Amino acid sequence: xxxxxxxxxxxxxxxxxxxxxxxxxxxxxxxxxxxxxxxxxxxxxxxxxxxxxxxxxxxxxxxxxxxxxxxxxxxxxxxxxxxxxxxxxxxxxxxxxxxxxxxxxxxxxxx
Amino acid sequence: xxxxxxxxxxxxxxxxxxxxxxxxxxxxxxxxxxxxxxxxxxxxxxxxxxxxxxxxxxxxxxxxxxxxxxxxxxxxxxxxxxxxxxxxxxxxxxxxxxxxxxxxxxxxxxxxxxxxx
Lengths: 111, 117
Fold this sequence. Notes:
Number of strands of chain B: 11
Number of helices of chain B: 0
Radius of gyration of chain A: 13 Å
Low-confidence stretches of chain B: none
Mean pLDDT of chain A: 92
Mean pLDDT of chain B: 90
Structural class of chain A: mainly beta
Distance between the termini of chain A: 38 Å
Low-confidence stretches of chain A: none
Largest sheet of chain B: 7 strands, mixed
Helix content of chain B: under 10%
Helix content of chain A: under 10%
Strand content of chain A: over 45%
Oligomer: heterodimer
Largest interface: A-B, 28 and 32 residues
């Protein structure tokens, strides 16, 4: 069983739609949860960073963590064509540890 | 305020040659991580270094791969006697010294795309 599972998609939505991206994980020790955005042939760019359970909002992006279900989500409101990218979830359990990544979900927002 | 720098951005090697990938972390960051990304796969951890120390190399192949982060200069990921299966994107990330009881997230460079012919 992989540490982190993420549906690879591809996911295609019309401009303005609400996008929901999800990951599940198996290691209950994970405490730090991140979402990265990666454009084609570029490095991952940090979008959201959450510690433990709860919600965090930043502009059009909302990250949710449900540790009881080992499930994290990223919501994108009013999606834009510029949001078209691959979204990677990542997590770790302690200071300075490696990050465990999902395989990424490919998103296309159609104008 | 420059981010993580990696060079070269693209590297082509023939089987059996050596590949040297360089990473300069964000100024002030003392932790460096190397990841490998194969097509259609997520990022896989390889090694975590602090200045002059390897902290965790559990993701490094046992042979041909080595990494260093000297007191001065960039971090180097070295692959000896490359094979076609080494073709991938290699990403470096850096983070500042961790706050007590917490962690700081990792900031990624643009990657080096290695092609082995």
